[in-house]
């Protein structure tokens, strides 16, 4: 079994105290972290220095991120293919647009909407951890997620901060 921490829309130039607490608490037992974009600066990933990290750039990323990170990635964990993308454009129809970006994946992890999602679309897990920062979309708190990959496949859980 592999646990994967999932975060998106941090909108920070460097990790803050809340990110370090996240790494020590909710992400303590994960073996890797996926960041679904809008880091702003690549330095944000320093909060997860002891983990393997896969990240993509988003529409709010600065040049230090966009020069290093791709707009989408596909990783394989225990034979399960996971697509990672930030997302783009209107919230309306976003899942349909990003669904077309990937072939032959069991899950698509995305951000951009700042709203958590954890459901199947045509047999593919669509997983959005929501926004780490709580200032957006009227949320009282930020959210992150954890994916679990095991012999049954992949499942997700949304965690409030």
From TrEMBL:
Cofactor: a divalent metal cation
Keywords, alphabetical: Metal-binding
Signal peptide region: none
EC number, UniProt record: 3.1.4.-
Presence of the UniProt keyword Metal-binding in the record: yes
MF-aspect GO terms: hydrolase activity; metal ion binding
KW Metal-binding (keyword) present: yes
Domain named Calcineurin-like phosphoesterase: residues: 3-151
Family assignment from sequence similarity: Belongs to the metallophosphoesterase superfamily. YfcE family.
Classification via PANTHER family: VACUOLAR SORTING PROTEIN VPS29 (PTHR11124)
NCBIfam families associated with the record: yfcE (TIGR00040)
Protein name, UniProt field: Phosphoesterase
Upper taxonomic lineage: Bacteria, Pseudomonadati, Thermodesulfobacteriota, Desulfobacteria, Desulfobacterales
